[in-house]
Amino acid sequence: MDNHDKKRTLIIEAATKRFAHFGIAKTTMTEIAKDLSLSKALLYYYFPDKISLYAAVFESIATKMFDKIEQGLIDINNCEEAVFYLIDMRLAFAMKYYNLFDQSLNTVTELADELSRVIQLVSELEIKTIASIFNKANKSGELVVDKPDYIAEIFLNAMIGMRFCVLKDKKAMFIPTKEEFDEISKMQKKLAVIFINGLRNQLSN
């Protein structure tokens, strides 16, 4: 890792601590620069605005989360248990970094390109992870899933749809409260049981 990459990583780590504790709205670029003893000019050289830095923080955390999930899934050989593990890890991530889901983002009418890119990346990582669970079940004979990537995308969209059933403030940008996150996860597990049983029934027919 060269000096440029090291500096960028240090900035992301410092910003993660700030955003996770105070949220994006109550964190300033000046505070992050001060934490690192950097000039604001140097900070803006790496990240032109707070949203681009927020996007980098979100990407960093999400990448680490999916790496950890991938490692945890290695020793899980049951499809249902694997999906439950994924859901539990997503909830743990949401609780640990809850302030990253800042309500101030509700006022952003159009997401910045960099943030949109990261959101798309997270979706692709989720689909890849779910597809890997289905592929493993295929190999073990637990399930027979045609087009695992496509089925994984359908399942992910169904899980995301759980938010609409739980959110009390439908005008919010789909950012649940901590209690709602927990309720959503419970519903997603029930959905997983129904979904996987449906795939098992295809196997028996």
TrEMBL record:
SUPFAM superfamilies with a match to the protein in the record: Homeodomain-like
Domain HTH tetR-type, chain residue ranges per copy: 5-65
InterPro entries on file: DNA-bd_HTH_TetR-type_CS, Homeodomain-like_sf, HTH-type_TetR-like_transc_reg, HTH_TetR
Ranges annotated as DNA-binding: 28-47
Pfam families: TetR_N
Gene Ontology terms, MF aspect: DNA binding
Entry-linked PROSITE patterns: HTH_TETR_1, HTH_TETR_2
Keywords, in A-Z order: DNA-binding
Full protein name: Transcriptional regulator, TetR family
